[in-house]
Amino acid sequence: MKTLKEYASLTQTRLSQLIPSLPENAFEPGEMPALLAESMRYSLLAGGKRLRPAMLLAACEMLGGEIEPALDYACAIEMIHTYSLIHDDLPGMDDDDMRRGRPTNHVVFGVGQAILAGDGLLNMAFEVMLKSALKAGSNIEKCVRAAGEIARGAGVTGMIAGQCADLYQEGREDGTEEMLKFIHEGKTMAMFVGAMRAGACLAGADEKALNAVTEYARAFGLLFQASDDVLDIIADPALFGHSVGKDERDGKLTAVSVLTLEGAKARVETLLKEAVCALEGFGAEADFFRSLADAVAHRDH
Ligand code: GRG
């Protein structure tokens, strides 16, 4: 088992190889345009905590799988996550001008190119996973299962469903705790569940282990979003990497708007206990996940 930094660095190296920097203004037949590569790299390699790829790799390792063949899936989920951030920041969605500590993709490349950078990353994620599956020989089924988990997490019953509800709810006065749950489970939790289940599938995990990682990822995802909602109120903008106080200004339904700041903080602690509890059946090999949940619950950015 490695540290978050080590998993992040492995992911970064592979991502940079998958989308290389190309000569300026090149539009070569059959090749990715240099402009597209540049805008995709701009958002993808800009930093970011790499939580989802690290959790995929750590779940795979914890359950006896190998890192090297799982790296393409780790990169794929980070590509999908980055596409969702680029699209979320667009004027038609959250309309944000800072992300990962730098101007958002559409501010630098324009709205049209930013949409394409997101589309490109989403498409490429599936291309990378399919290519990898075809090279996996007798492990092909594990790979297809993993790709299916990632697709489900990112898809119309997962992240996109949550984003749909989040947009629908914006500025409305009729928010409920059920709707908050739907939004958080969709836009945030589903990708963490997808990441960990994909890692477990690649390791060939049995049903019991799959259930345990799912329970952990569910609690972790909800904890992550509740703490993000708290940080939107109390974080230092210089550390947070994107806007602070924006949820409230946009009339968003958040853990804080539904539960109050103190209530949201208490929810984070309850979810932390649930996440740790889900790992009861594991020993020291799950320590990465225990400390990750604790660090996210108590982060200041
Ligand atoms: C556009 C289909 C579509 C979905 C957008 C990701 C997303 C859904 C919206 C971004 C806004 C938001 C608060 C989403 C919840 C998930 C979340 C907190 C994402 C940020 O994840 P981090 O903190 O980001 O892991 P880094 O930059 O570290 O990768």
| Strand line-up in the sheet with most strands | 1-2
CATH architecture: Orthogonal Bundle
Order of helices and strands: HHHHEEHHHHHHHHHH
Number of helices: 14
Ends distance = 25 Å
Describe the fold and architecture.
By secondary structure, this protein is an all-alpha fold. It has one domain (4-297): Farnesyl Diphosphate Synthase. The chain is 70% helix and 1% strand. The radius of gyration is 19 Å and the shape is globular. The two termini are 25 Å apart. 45% of the residues are buried. The model has no long low-confidence stretch (mean pLDDT 95). Bound molecules: geranylgeranyl diphosphate.
State the gist of this model.
The protein is built from 14 helices and two strands.
Give a topology summary.
Layout: H1 4-18, H2 34-44, H3 51-62, H4 67-88, E1 98-99, E2 102-103, H5 105-109, H6 111-134, H7 140-154, H8 159-169, H9 177-202, H10 207-234, H11 237-240, H12 246-249, H13 255-278, H14 287-297
The structure holds geranylgeranyl diphosphate.
Geranylgeranyl diphosphate is lined by residues 48-49, 51, 81, 84-85, 87-88, 100, 159-160, 163, 187-188, 225, 228.
What characteristics describe this protein?
301 residues, mainly alpha, Farnesyl Diphosphate Synthase, two-stranded antiparallel ribbon, 2 strands, binds geranylgeranyl diphosphate
